[in-house]
Amino acid sequence: MSDAIHDVLGVGNAIVDIIAQADEAFLQLHDMTKGGMALIDEARAHALYADMGAAIEASGGSAANSIAGVASFGGRAAFIGKVRDDEFGRIFGHDLTSLGVHFTTPPATDGPATARCLVLVTPDAQRTMNTHLGACVDLTPADIDADLVAASAITYLEGYLFDPPAAKEAFRKAATIARGAGRKVALTLSDSFCVHRYKDEFRQLIADHIDILFANESEIEALYGSADIDAAADDLAAQVSIAAITRSEKGSLLISGSERVAVAAAPIDELVDTTGAGDLYAAGVLFGLSRQKTLAECGRLGSLAAAEVIQHYGARPLQPLATIG
Questions:
Q1: Residue 41 lies in a domain
Q2: Of 15, 238, 209, 224, nearest to 116 (Cα)?
Q3: Which end of the chain is more exposed for a tag (fewer CB within 10 A), N or C?
């Protein structure tokens, strides 16, 4: 992989995160389920945005957060995702490229607005998300830059984007190009609800195309129908080269063949906002793998990155991750 131009290429939802503090009363007023994620239409997105207090606006989306983390570690990062040629689309592109990420996916000139996720963070650090998917779900195989994929050591696919049929084909196209170029393909399952909806398709995608898998305990349970992590580890070891299972405050488990590496969660001073914890964990592991580090070291970098991001608001690191490794 040493001849690659980019260490990690992310393919995922291009979303602008709008993050604000809120109390329980605000959630109740707007009929939100605390800690949940609701898909909303453009009209509700505008209405909620108008009622929210002072907010942080930054490019987001799960895979994009991970790619920003890779860049923060000093990695050579790239991203493919769909925005509209509007204000939020320009915010997304500017934020990502300002971090040194290669992002050249052409914006849509018509259709839905750029996606946005309105995140309300309550005093207990729980995040309640309201997502208008907008233009990001219109990613198609035509948006997959074959040269970019072939030039990237690892192509990282975001499970959240697996809903639209065209996006599924885009995933398969990217994976086929990557494998054909001798590169690796990684997948994050993203959410147990995604897995429940497409369990059989995810299992087929993993069997046919995936080298590196990221999941949390609930996603593994959804995939295999069991909460037995040890049994799942054996199943995963037979299907992928590397699997990383996150376990919140219990840390993570990395799997490769017969190797099992348990990594403790990194200590923190204060839990402020859990937004982006899994995304930044993946960033650390992906960066480590791109540098041929051991599983234990990859897991340590993932834990450090996750710990950094949960101690402040927002899903992107505030300090360069290269300084904490």
A1: no
A2: 15
A3: N
For residue 115, give the nearest of 64, 70, 66, 77 by alpha carbon: 64
Domain that includes residue 269, residue range: 6-12+61-109+137-323
> What's the rounded Cα separation, in Å, for the pair 14 and 161?
10
* Distances from the Cα of 141 to the Cα of 38, 43, 169, 170, angstroms: 27, 29, 6, 4
Q: What is the pLDDT of residues 151-209, one digit of tens each?
A: 999 999 999 898 889 999 999 999 999 999 999 999 999 988 889 899 999 999 999 99
Which tokens go with 118?
Answer: 């309105």
Q: How many domains does the chain have?
A: 1
Q: What is the pLDDT of residues 77-114, one digit of tens each?
A: 999 999 999 999 999 999 999 999 999 999 999 999 99
Are the C-beta atoms of 151 and 6 separated by less than 8 Å?
yes
pTM: 0.91
Alpha-carbon distance of 209 to 272, in angstroms, equals: 37
**Bridge partners of residue 120, in order along the sequence:** 20, 128
Q: For the purposes of burial, counting CB atoms within 10 Å of the CB of 163, is it exposed (0-12), middle (13-18) or buried (19 or more)?
A: middle
227 token code pair? 């909460």
**Residue 234: CB atoms within 10 Å:** 12
Q: Is residue 38 assigned to a domain? A: no
On whether residue 312 sits in a domain, the answer given is: yes
DSSP 216: E
Q: Which residues pair with 132 in a beta bridge?
A: 116
CATH code for the domain of 180: 3.40.1190.20
